[in-house]
Here is the input.
Amino acid sequence: MSCKPPKPALSLAAQVELLKSRGLIVNDTTKAIKILSAVNYYRLSAYSLGLRKDDIFFEGTTFEQIYQLYEFDTKLRHVLVSAIEIIEIKFRTKIAYYLAMEHDPMSYLDTSLFKDKIRHEPLLQNLSVRKKGRKGRLS
Here is the structure.
């Protein structure tokens, strides 16, 4: 198996120039450099995939458009993670309540109550690690 040699490292200013050479409009070079220093060239370039063919940007594509896509995705992920966390907590609470009421408060330790016996052991290990991490704390 052959490996490609790594691409040479480029300064932030050189990264902006590379993007410009590929047809990307950069209205504020200083701002673009600041964004690239915080976000990373490769992470940001993923948001440009629909705005270019191969390495050439479609006419009129701007750096600001790509960054707006990145910001939108970041905000959307934060909203979704918050919503998923609420659902996850409710779901875990219902499972814990059901097990405690139908069996006993320690029933999560009883392998016979679980359909997937193979996954039960890692669950217990995970809970044990979490419990150890909380020693001395009230939550």
